[in-house]
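Run log, item B.
One chain of 322 residues. Sequence copied directly from the ordering sheet:
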Amino acid sequence: METLRSRGITRDDVWQAADSLLKAGQRPTIERIRLHLGRGSPNTVSPHLDAWFAALGGRIQDPQGFAPAPGCPQPVTEAARYLWEAALQVARASAEAALTQRQAALAEEQAALAQEREALAQERQVMQARLDGAEAAMAEMTRARDEASDRAARAEAAAAALQRQVDALRAESAAALEARDALQRDFATQRAAWDQERETLTQRAAANERRMALELDAARVAAKDAQKLLEAERKAAMERLAHAAASASRQGSEMTRLGQAIAVLEERVRQRESLLAEYRDQSAAAAAPALASPAPRRARPARGTLAGGMSGRLRTRGSPGS
């Protein structure tokens, strides 16, 4: 409600209140005017009061500025003139005091302002020095930041390159581990196969050794039998030769036949000796690799077959009448 009433305060209301206060010997102020009017805000009263003070000098110089209205009685006019003069003196004294106070305050304000300006100048110099230092520090920080950014970029690039190398090395390591595992598996498989083959070759070599031993025994027996048969045939041939020589004088044709038979027998003996030497060489050649290496050999004929064949050949060739 007070706000609405304060909006209704006009210039004339403020000026009339200021005139009344001045006539009453009081200095018009914002608070006194508000108390005199009973309303109004400082923001509303202040510009009207400033305008009143601005026009006060001209009104004081104008005798009719505070003159009573026409038709007023003489006593009222005299009283008004007296009040005007009294108010004028009071206003002049108040104005001079206010001027003196204002001048003193202005001097103090000017001194304070000068000190403040000096302080501000010093502070400005300090701030300028600080600003220069800050700008230099900012430039240094900017340069350091740029260098740090460059180093960070290079570090990131180096880290990325190192990461790529690490990834490549990890991939190579994984491939190498996989290849090693594959080689180990292959080696284990081959070693198992080698162990199995070695076991098989060992068993086969043992069997071959046993078979060769049996074959050698059979060959020795057959050789002994052939030697005995050869000796028997040689003895028989010698006996026949002696018998033929005894009867050579009687039968020349029989001598010739016996000579031919002796030649045939000698040829057969040479063949049997050559066959026996060949058989011995073959037996020795077959026994030597079997003893030196466990590699499998081709199956040889059984002892009975070899001995039987040898004996049959010897019997066939040893017969005188064949």
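Observations after the first pass:
- The helical segments are 2-7, 11-23, 30-37, 42-61, 74-246, 252-292, 303-318.
- Residues 2-102 form one domain.
Flagged for discussion on Thursday.
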